[in-house]
Specification:
The protein is 46% helix and 9% strand. By secondary structure, the chain is mainly alpha-helical. The chain has two domains: 97 residues, NAD(P)-binding Rossmann-like Domain (Rossmann fold), CATH 3.40.50; 32 residues, no CATH class. Strands 1-2 form a two-stranded parallel ribbon. Helix 1 runs parallel beside helix 2. One of its GO terms (molecular function) is oxidoreductase activity. Keywords: Oxidoreductase.
Length: 132
């Protein structure tokens, strides 16, 4: 941000927007999916569906500049178990995946040296993930 608000460490409107998209958006999609899944005929094992939420390694290990993002992904992690418990009576499973560092257009905009250093932080394999 290049306006005066860039002097504020964590502008509330930015924080709220990230939570609106990542957390409330994920909750809303899960809610709507669960409504449809609950109406489906159960499989032989009682399962009617599975909701897969996407968090991030930032939910557990956020970095500088990731306050809002980390909080939003941490909220997704936090709602997974209670949601799974609530929806189990309808035959719906709820899980969350937390991907690490992936080579994305945003990450590729960083200098190559920075990308290499980020890749070295990954234990095994010691590289950035490839979404392809």
């Amino acid at each position: 941000r290049k306006d005066k608000s860039s002097l504020i460490p964590h502008p509330l409107d930015d924080f709220a927007k990230v939570l609106q998209v990542n957390t409330i958006g994920s909750f809303n999609m899960a809610r709507l999916a669960a409504e449809r899944m609950a109406k489906r005929e159960a499989q032989e094992d009682g399962l009617r569906g599975c909701i897969v939420n996407t968090a991030s390694v930032a939910a557990y290990d956020g970095q500088i500049g990731q306050v809002a993002y980390s909080a939003s992904k941490g909220a997704i992690v936090g709602m997974t178990l209670p949601m799974a418990r609530e929806l189990s009576r309808f035959g719906i499973r709820v899980v969350t995946v937390a991907p690490g560092l992936f080579r994305t257009p945003l990450l590729e905009s960083l200098p190559e040296e920075v990308q290499q250093e980020l890749g070295k932080q990954v234990p095994l394999p010691s590289r950035l993930g490839d979404p392809a």
